[in-house]
Known about the structure:
Elements: H1 5-13, H2 24-34, E1 55-61, E2 64-70, H3 87-109, E3 113-115, H4 119-131, H5 139-150, H6 152-160, H7 165-177, E4 186-189, E5 194-197, E6 204-206, H8 207-225, H9 234-250
Antiparallel strand pairs: 1-2, 3-6, 4-5
Helix pairs in contact: 4-5, 4-7, 6-7
Amino acid sequence: xxxxxxxxxxxxxxxxxxxxxxxxxxxxxxxxxxxxxxxxxxxxxxxxxxxxxxxxxxxxxxxxxxxxxxxxxxxxxxxxxxxxxxxxxxxxxxxxxxxxxxxxxxxxxxxxxxxxxxxxxxxxxxxxxxxxxxxxxxxxxxxxxxxxxxxxxxxxxxxxxxxxxxxxxxxxxxxxxxxxxxxxxxxxxxxxxxxxxxxxxxxxxxxxxxxxxxxxxxxxxxxxxxxxxxxxxxxxxxxxxxxxxxxxxxx
Length: 251
């Protein structure tokens, strides 16, 4: 609601900041920052609904002015001010920052983490190759194909980082074949250009994320393999050919 000039002057004379027509989202952010409880009336206000702030100031950043609440003891929120020369840079920065925060949030709430860099995929591939020795029939071929598909992750990482994927995969297979925790977390270290124990390098991923990735990839592969027949539509193909002919003639 708006605040009249008389009330604004009354608060200003007593060094009290006041603001009118504040958006609901902004009020909720202030409440989380100061520990206050939003009220619909000024009657019967008690101390337990009031928030606390160590320092409040109005700061000029560029062409905008911001109200800064700092030194809040019971804060439950943090505000990040992003600035840039163009809107596209700000949007990209916001997306990158959001991804990073969500990854940390997922890792914090996860009950277990695994090493990244293709380490968990190589370990699963090794386990399946050992398991399929006791399997007979066509199932053995399926397990072998699944184990080989898991090696695509470290292979792609090594190729994208300019490394020899064949050499990297051979070294990883050797490390993981040792068994135990000694070679379990060895993966592709793209920063140093070699293989390393990425668990000790703090390259971690939430366990739930890898489970979701493997589950989604398996479901997609099963959906493709379940397609036993395709239906052709000659009329649609003819229309597409005619449209392509018109475009080539126009060019």
